[in-house]
Design goal:
By secondary structure, the chain is an alpha/beta fold. It has 2 domains: 347 residues, Glycosidases (TIM Barrel, Alpha-Beta Barrel); 72 residues, Golgi alpha-mannosidase II (Immunoglobulin-like, Sandwich), CATH 2.60.40. Helix content is 23%, strand content 14%. It contains 11 helices and 14 strands. The chain has a 7-stranded parallel sheet. Strands 8-9-14-11 form a 4-stranded antiparallel sheet, with helices on one face. Strands 10-13-12 form a 3-stranded antiparallel sheet, with no helix packed on it.
Length: 459
């Protein structure tokens, strides 16, 4: 994941950017795919339907860096960026391949935990910035095939997702600290890894070859989630070609906006089907635009054995509610251990979120953003129904519904199997007389039914 991607600009080496040989891959002609491709995904784009319905997915950052568990030479604040942040020489880092043997990995168990938590898709790192591939990549030996484990983890994950009815999605970094043709080099290794003989165009062909394997060999893929695109070697034209490649291989695949490259001039044809805010939920969401907030459970994307600063269950449910109430998806990250297990704190939180989702999930799935501009609660909308997420249970009812114009036909708590009607007060502004105690100590959900699509005006 990005993590610290904006902290330093990394140099290309002595040759400089201007001296590199670029040969961008040709784009399809006007009569091909490119002429019919719309960026970003249109409101009625059928490719986006399942993604908009899902609202909640699992992110998984796993690789060689998990073996080091965030620690190198006495420092314990590293994670998936450890080769760069700890300045580990390539030859030293390569030794981790012989140590990667996750004997406790069980794809069905991982996917089962995602499903039980109410998640509808899984996005896993097929390759992070360090260049190591968790799939059996026929273009390099720097992959799972060379480890003691040997088995194709992406194949096992894709098969497990298919069995569980979840969508398999791939994270794939454009940046690559291992390929000799990738430029620029890290600034700290410029002397030990000279750029002589490096050809970025050859790296681009390698990248396309990796993507082709990921989209040909593992069945239907929900999302190609790119990252590591911010260095100036990756241009807008290269991004256009990569997007087109993905859509040509699987026309229904969704591609995130991080395939977008650098441009000297303003970009008028932005790429990607959804935006990817990182470690935050946009203050007001992005009305009319698809977006997905990717957020860690603790402070790191990859596994760090010293990082126990996990968000509470209440915080995580709050993030899910906030994201849905603003019209977006939440991609919640897990950093598995090197042995193939999830940290205990992550398992505990997934279990608790699952309990809440089994009662209240209908208020998340397939919903649209809140209609209320100013209210003491968050809400979502689905057809002729509004869901209210009440975290601060009013000590003295009623609960005011500011600006609600449409008469409420019925109101009840999702946690109440009997669907006992909640008293509705309609004199003046509509309000609800809630039960004395909240059914859920974290967040209780009230469903409001209407005879037509509800309208909310200024409070």
């Amino acid at each position: 994941m990005a993590g610290m991607k904006r902290r330093t600009f990394l140099q290309a080496g002595a040759a400089g950017l201007g001296a590199m040989a670029f040969a961008p891959l040709p784009l399809p002609g006007k009569s091909g795919l490119w002429a019919t491709t719309v960026f970003p995904g249109a409101a009625d784009d059928p490719r986006m339907a399942w993604w908009r319905e899902a609202r909640f997915g699992m992110f998984i950052h796993w690789g060689l860096y998990s073996i080091l568990a965030g620690e190198w030479m006495g420092r314990t604040d590293h994670a998936e960026w450890i080769r760069n942040t700890a300045h580990i020489p390539l030859a030293e880092y390569d030794k981790l391949v012989a140590r990667f043997n996750p004997t406790l990995f069980d794809a069905d168990h991982w996917v089962g935990m995602a499903k039980d938590a109410g998640m509808k898709y899984v996005t896993i790192t097929s390759k992070h910035h360090d260049g190591f591939c968790l799939f059996d990549n026929r273009l390099t030996s720097f992959c799972i095939r060379s480890t003691p484990f040997k088995r194709d983890i992406m194949k096992q994950m894709a098969d497990a997702c298919a069995r569980a009815g979840l969508r398999q999605c791939w994270y794939h970094s454009i940046m690559d600290w291992h390929r000799p043709d990738y430029l620029p080099r890290r600034d700290w290794e410029a002397e030990t890894r000279p750029v002589d003989g490096a050809h970025y165009a050859r790296f681009v062909r390698y990248l396309h070859g990796c993507v082709e394997q990921l989209l040909r060999n593992y069945g239907d893929i929900g999302v190609m989630w790119f990252d590591g695109q911010w260095e100036q070697t990756w241009t807008h034209e290269l991004g256009r070609a990569l997007y087109a490649k993905c859509r040509a291989l699987q026309p229904s695949v969704i591609v995130n906006n991080r395939c977008e490259g650098w441009s000297q001039t303003p970009i008028t044809d932005p790429l990607g089907d959804f935006r990817t805010p990182e470690q935050e939920v946009p203050a007001t969401g992005w009305p009319g635009v698809d977006w997905e907030s990717c957020i860690t459970m603790n402070d790191n994307w990859g596994y760090n054995s010293h990082d126990h600063n996990f968000k509470s269950v209440a915080q995580l449910i709050g993030l899910l509610v906030e994201t849905a109430s603003k019209g977006g998806n939440l991609l919640l990250n897990i950093g598995p251990k090197a042995d193939g297990t999830f940290p205990d704190e992550s398992v505990e939180r997934l279990t608790a979120i699952g309990r809440w989702m089994r009662v209240n999930g209908e208020a998340i799935y397939g919903t649209t953003a809140s209609l209320f501009a100013n209210a003491p609660f968050r809400s979502t909308t689905k057809g002729n129904r509004i869901y209210l997420f009440v975290t601060d249970w009013p000590e003295v009812p009623p609960l005011a519904l500011p600006g609600l114009k449409t008469p409420i036909r019925n109101a009840y708590l999702l946690a109440d199997p009997a669907r006992t009607p909640i008293v509705i007060q309609s004199a003046g502004a509509q309000s609800l007389v809630l039960p004395r105690s909240a059914p859920d100590p974290i967040c209780s959900v009230v469903a409001l039914d209407f005879d037509r699509a509800p309208e909310v005006g200024p409070a």
